[in-house]
Amino acid sequence: MTAIEHPAARRGRAARQTERLARSMETLPYLTRKLAPVEVVSTEGLEQIEHNADTLLHDVGIEIGNFPEALEIFRGAGADVTGTRVRFERGMCRKIIQASAPKVFTQRARNPKRSVVIGDPYVVLVPTYGSPFIHNLDEGRRYATIEDFRNFVKLTYMNHTLHHGGGTLCEPVDLPVNKRHIEMVYSHIRYTDKAFMGSVTHPSRAQDSVDMVKVLFGADTLDHEHVIMGLANANSPMSWDFNMLGSAKVYAENNQIMLITPFILGGAMAPVTVAASATQTLAEALAGMAFCQIVRPGAPVIFGSFASSMSMQTGAPTFGTPEPQLVLYVLAALSRRLGVPFRSGGNFTASKLPDYQAAYESAVSFMSTMQAGVNFNLHTAGWLEGGLAIGYEKFILDADQASMAGAFLDGVDLTDNGYALQAMLDGGPGQHFLGSPHTLANFETAFWRSEISNNDSFEQWQLDGSLDAAQRANLRWKRQLAEYEEPGLDEAIHEELREWMDKRRASFPDSDV
Amino acid sequence: MTAIEHPAARRGRAARQTERLARSMETLPYLTRKLAPVEVVSTEGLEQIEHNADTLLHDVGIEIGNFPEALEIFRGAGADVTGTRVRFERGMCRKIIQASAPKVFTQRARNPKRSVVIGDPYVVLVPTYGSPFIHNLDEGRRYATIEDFRNFVKLTYMNHTLHHGGGTLCEPVDLPVNKRHIEMVYSHIRYTDKAFMGSVTHPSRAQDSVDMVKVLFGADTLDHEHVIMGLANANSPMSWDFNMLGSAKVYAENNQIMLITPFILGGAMAPVTVAASATQTLAEALAGMAFCQIVRPGAPVIFGSFASSMSMQTGAPTFGTPEPQLVLYVLAALSRRLGVPFRSGGNFTASKLPDYQAAYESAVSFMSTMQAGVNFNLHTAGWLEGGLAIGYEKFILDADQASMAGAFLDGVDLTDNGYALQAMLDGGPGQHFLGSPHTLANFETAFWRSEISNNDSFEQWQLDGSLDAAQRANLRWKRQLAEYEEPGLDEAIHEELREWMDKRRASFPDSDV
């Protein structure tokens, strides 16, 4: 188990490391999956879940809170609307979605090299979303500020695992609730060149988000390109509210992307079983995605699922447990059958700090995320404390580990080079392969490697300060922020954007609701 | 994301927690898998790997170091022996194994309730093996002693996740090399009632191990029951040495269990690719398992694989990386095709302490272990630093997380209770399920739960001392050792065993080789 010096490692190591570093810093725009997704339920089981979801949509229906216009939209498409309840004929939502929702689409980034393709067989990794707190080793946990938000935009920009800038990386609670979205969208436009998400906390804020990317890309661009995404959660069970569905309407009517995600805490918002969580998620998501297609056929939607289990002692959500993993596998399969991109999973944990619990729960979640066949993976990096906090160290650690997805999803190389039969025939019993031609030809790309994990000898690790992984990550994020350079934004666009922002902010008073 | 008080949790919580604890402390003797194993390679790919392994066995053959008797054994079975090289006709080893090796067998424990069944569809979880060092939060890392060994036997005995006592839980380096096996086997016999493993460091020590269980179970018992297991690693590539194969001969001729495990550090002992590591592992294991079957047809064998990747900077082994996971999936599939139980995986890490790296690498390894379809899972709990150390806290943390395997391998419940359609129809939009009859009927068993993870609110966690997972595990192992009680051993057997040990130890001088 002791370290073995590879012969090739002795010559010009520094030069090669520099070269490797440069190469690894090139962000792949997204991953392409070769490994088949893992299925955990038979076709009959999936069909039964689909049948039951249709039963829910038909018999129970969806309650639409405080949004008469949505009721009219559903009624116009043929749904049965009684009061605020919308009921659907069997198969109606599926038919609407399959008629117009794209299976695969591109979200354009302002740097065209960083545009992402969303849908099978592609995988887009995205940072965590929505935390009111931050955590780091220096300060512990505290409320997030716009400075933290900018920091995470910058760290995401510099990170070569994360393909997409994400959205509400954290809540800048030092800004008024009704205006912080403007500063967030601006930060995504200015400090990164990756694709990103806008606001959904009120339809007017969704519209602001869309208006800002119109300044960035030109208003006409949005008619034929998808440049921003919104995330809507259902009010499970079986309800959609005005803010979420109203925001969905704004994104859809502007031909932009909606991520439709029921949020299910099993035992609270749905029955405790895996199949029931999947059934209800499917029903709620079908209604939300159909709504977007009715508003504007062809506007891209992503089928999302967020499912967690619950502590039976306290009712608190729990993560990295087997049951939500199984829900994820089932919903990924249902999404493939429906034919839309799928979002779920990430590096989830209930832990308050980047400890053993945080890592174990995160890894279990992320392994399922990879294996089930997720196309858009929100919450890839940073998530702590059930989403209440984003961790600076956790962000670095998660993104580092998630970079293994590329190698994992490549699957097993079954070419002659992969079988390497000749190399084994050329060697002999007891002869090591360190210097064999096959090893030298493949060594650089043979094994995924972490940039944070320490594989040194105990003695070397001690000499280097006996740092644990979180301490190494602490050094990393500080160095990255110190080295950050803006990607640069066209001056005229920047000025127009600042003018739009000043005018918009001045047009209504600050409010914290 | 905040804690939700479950109505049922308000009444008599203490009483129910006590009851749950009592129930959870009952060790299931082993797990039964319902979820189908995950396959990552097509049948054609597996056939090609089998073909290539046969090519290696035919063209290169196996070198047998310093063990003429083994050459004669192979020659007697029809192998081509030239010098110390043994070559096999295509399919010969497979045919020998399939003719007599059991697909499923029982290893008897001295407590019959703890006997384990090894083979599909069962899963047996076993602690880590072979570390010369221990690690804990109080002392850091130091050499292991027989006191540590006893501690881990006791902790394994008390642990309700681990089904089997394991073998060399750590190396008691305070005892002479040539006698420490006697004290280890004695500790397994006295301090636990779970099944266990004996010595393989020399055939005479394997014989001592067998002789000691003859005292425990009666000599005749071994003719029809399997009560001890040995673990043999090949000298990869393509070699078996005297100590390992000689020990295998002792276990096999006594009708006991051999775990035949090539140990492959990709790029060193085999080419760097996944398919090549799998091919060579298969070839070496086929020769080792065939040897056992020639020695005594029907003696149980387990097909083992230990594969790791390598740091391209230092040559150090790395864990929790994608490539060894893929090797594991391939070999589990090859083992199913061969028809013998499979061993691989565990909670592996290169980290020196139970930090984020340790947990992430371990979880990635363990998820693959579960999903690939491992039957006997050595290294489930405790492994640190590439196996150089067993961690007291890591042991507790790993076993805690590994307890999820039962829930995971149960797969998705597709009964009416699992679909829970009526519960969803009875509820309504916006109505939570916390108090629904379906939830109350299923809540206690609905979700796997960790006993170490903390899912409390941040404030509660702070009030409880802001402990991280490793600190909580530190309290746990100390409390368990303080509360340990011996399972009790028949006095006459104990006395006979002590006499055997005294006599045997006096029969040759201490030595550290």
Specify the number of helices of chain A. 20
Helix content of chain A: 40-55%
| Oligomer classification | homodimer
**Largest interface (C-beta under 8 Å):** A-B, 136 and 136 residues
The average pLDDT of chain A is 94
Structure classification of chain A: alpha/beta
Distance from N terminus to C terminus of chain A (CA atoms, Å) equals 59 Å
State the shape of chain A.
globular
**Number of E strands of chain A:** 19
Percent range for β-strand residues of chain A: 5-15%
Calculate Rg of chain A over CA atoms: 24 Å
Query: Spans of chain A of 5+ residues with little confidence (pLDDT < 50)?
Result: 1-25
For the sheet with most strands of chain A, the description reads: 6 strands, mixed
Can you give keywords for this protein?
disordered N terminus, globular, six-stranded mixed sheet, about 525 residues, alpha/beta, four-stranded mixed sheet, homodimer, 20 helices
Describe the fold and architecture.
Two copies of one chain form a homodimer. Chain A has 513 residues and is α/β, with parallel strands linked by helices. Chain A has 20 helices and 19 strands. Chain A has helices at residues 13-25, 43-60, 68-76, 92-100, 146-158, 180-191, 203-217, 221-224, 242-253, 274-295, 322-338, 356-372, 392-402, 405-409, 416-419, 421-426, 437-446, 458-463, 469-483, 491-506; strands at residues 31-32, 62-65, 80-82, 85-87, 105-107, 116-118, 122-125, 133-136, 140-143, 229-234, 239-241, 257-265, 301-304, 306-310, 317-318, 342-343, 376-377, 383-384, 389-391. In chain A, the strands form five sheets. In chain A, strands 10, 12, 13, 14, 15 and 16 form a six-stranded mixed β-sheet that branches. In chain A, a hairpin with a 4-residue loop joins β18 and β19. In chain A, α6 packs parallel to α7 and α9 packs across α10 (274-295). Chain A is globular and about 80 Å long. The first copy, chain A, starts with 12 loop residues before the first helix and ends in a 7-residue tail after the last helix. The model of chain A is unreliable at 1-25 (pLDDT under 50). Chains A and B meet through α2, α10, β15, α11 and α12 of A and α2, α10, β15, α11 and α12 of B.
